[in-house]
Fold these 2 entries.
Entry 1:
Amino acid sequence: MEYDVIIIGAGINGCCSAYTLAQAGLNVALIDQDGIASGGSGAAGAFISPKISKAGALKEIMERAHAEALEFYTTRFPRFTLTKPLLHIANSPQESDKLEHFKRETSLQHSPIDDALQSLLTEEASNDSAVYFTEGAVVDAQGVCRSMAEGIDFYPLKVEQLIHRDEVWQVGDLNAKHLVLALGAYPKLLPIDYVGLRGIWGHRIDIETSTHVPCILHHHVSISPTTKEGIVAIGATHDVHYSPFLGELYDVEQGRAVLLEKASKTLTLNNINIINDYTGLRSGSNDYLPMLGNLVDADATLLCYPHLRHGKAVDPADYVYYPQLTMINGSGGYGFVLAPYLAKRLKEYLVDGKALNLALSPSRFFPRWAKKHQS
Ligand SMILES: Cc1cc2nc3c(=O)[nH]c(=O)nc-3n(C[C@H](O)[C@H](O)[C@H](O)COP(=O)(O)OP(=O)(O)OC[C@H]3O[C@@H](n4cnc5c(N)ncnc54)[C@H](O)[C@@H]3O)c2cc1C
């Protein structure tokens, strides 16, 4: 089968890219070993929340991505998007400092909280710095991914090998000019050890409770508003030590206890019944910026420029790249916020010929890696 683009990985990055490229008229094949939203994306609480940060490239990208995501999900996928106000409460003195700064600078509408909400909060939550945004959103992670993939040719395959021959990528019986890798925290399929990614394990739970939660709450943990089905989501834990790839068993009971204890610092949830657990890996970059860009062929580049090993600079435009191959990854805990932003830039690159932002290129990690790896 011939396609314009093959996308490997049907998490939020793969699905949102497939949707955006198909909307632009490309013929897309989407592949996943375990089905749509089976990786980190299927576990996500999928809050579309602003990142509270002070200044710099990350703040600018996150602000833009957040605004684009709110617009994207509410207009394109309203059935899977719950919009409610969002109360962000600082959980440490450092965060309090960042939050106060953010509040002064942000263009997002915010207001004092009303008495009804105030009365729900614990004393600790009431006393910490907080900002109450008029508009927040949370999406149904699995529902939105499935809906994006509707009408796209989906192949349930575990890809073991990538072949590029005569300017065509071959994945099993599928051929395409362009290949997009959206593999999350899974093994990378190519010798690209310079790409600084780490898996961060997360656990969230869905509960029934007699307490009605009127808005999105972020404090020691995130708590969703009560859905029309009467569900409240609590999540997620952040564990950089546990990995399902190492064969250890995960302690679900302990994860539940951590989540409930953290939620109790924000408000009292009465008559709790846990109805579902979701676990998965986020894939975070070492510098917290997401990755969207071409991949350096490390061996070929070092052959051309051996002095890279000694720390000599080479213009990234002169590196040897795998042809017609783009990676989208490294969104950490903000994959649902970042996906529409990244997919839009991927479309502008593949369809409109616009250059990708070099600050997001995975090649940013290459020179440092080359210097450390002497042979
Ligand atoms: C518990 C939890 C809560 C979260 N909460 C939020 C939140 O509130 N808001 C937010 O914005 N983000 C949240 N995130 C983060 C977000 O889910 C991730 O950033 C996002 O899932 C990354 O998506 P992805 O498409 O890059 O990776 P994934 O969703 O992991 O998708 C990668 C896919 O690639 C497939 N794959 C890998 N290798 C192969 C292969 N060789 N062949 C075929 N298929 C392959 C896998 O099966 C997988 O389905 C949360 C994450 C977790 C775990």
Entry 2:
Amino acid sequence: MTTKAQYLSYPFAEFQGDLQEVTADLPQPTGTQVLVRVNYCGVCHSDVHLHEGFYNLGQGKKLMLEDRGIKLPVTLGHEIVGEIVAAGDQAGQYATGPVLVYPWVGCGSCSVCQRGEENLCTQPAALGVYKPGGYAQYVVVPHPRYVMSIGDIDPVHAPLLACSGLTTWSAIKKVGAIYDDEAVVVFGCGGLGLLAIRTLALKGVKNIIALDLDADKRQLALDVGATQVFDPTMADATQQIQAAANNKCVAVLDFVGAESTVELGISLPRRGGKVILVGLHGGEIRYPIPYVITRAISIIGSYTGSLPEQKELVEFAQKNNLFNFPIRTRPLKEANSALQELAQGKVQGRLVLDNR
Ligand SMILES: [Zn+2]
Ligand SMILES: [Zn+2]
């Protein structure tokens, strides 16, 4: 008689309810699946939104996540670093040693997925959203193509590559060419904003203007490579920021996504510039249509990133020291309090759950 191997996971059974420790039989990967032992898993701001169960659409309206096909219970965690410990008989070759999991899995067969944009598939199967994620000791991944070696990237930092890293990478790619006399404005100096500033600095962008309400976060932004920082609620914000940009703001990257930041953000770019919206704080955009046309600005939503972008970013992170800001680890068992801490805005830098 053998006892089946078991593992712990930390799902929530109702939106806004506590994460509960659950013991279950360890799944056996079948077909192309691989089983990944989770070593580290990032705690992300989108986990907070998922746990709340809605996005704020402004004017008292909410997008309920249950209506988007998210089924309870949910095991959060889409920033997963670990190692493959078992594979189904169709899995073929797979990465060994420390790996990062690309979580934004789609159906794999529709035209969107075939274009390489699985993160935008209309039948999403993202890990930690639609399928169980990394707030657990183990996670099942549908195919080894989603699992890539991280080489000698610090495994405590590497989880950030799957979400905040990928999201910022994809957002920055949407800017296109940035010339030496041009400025990029970054709203929000939390995890995403800091990573964006660091990435822009490593890519050689000369004028990086960072905005945050919090003076400590503005200091962190300077530490990671921002050239100028401002409080966005200052008087004459548009004029002051445009002056700091020498009227050459080529793009705004908004990692807050509130009505106040988007309203200010749209006012900033030069003609032909871009406003790239990433943050999901919520609200509505109201802006005169003729100005969008005469200023030739683009307002672009950016949601995570593609599998090819994930691979580019892992390569970039192997050659560049991306992570020079605070990352705190917490034992996996403390997933619930870690999520609450993030929801209350108490976290500087990033939180990573540790399951070694
Ligand atoms: Zn698809
Ligand atoms: Zn995330």
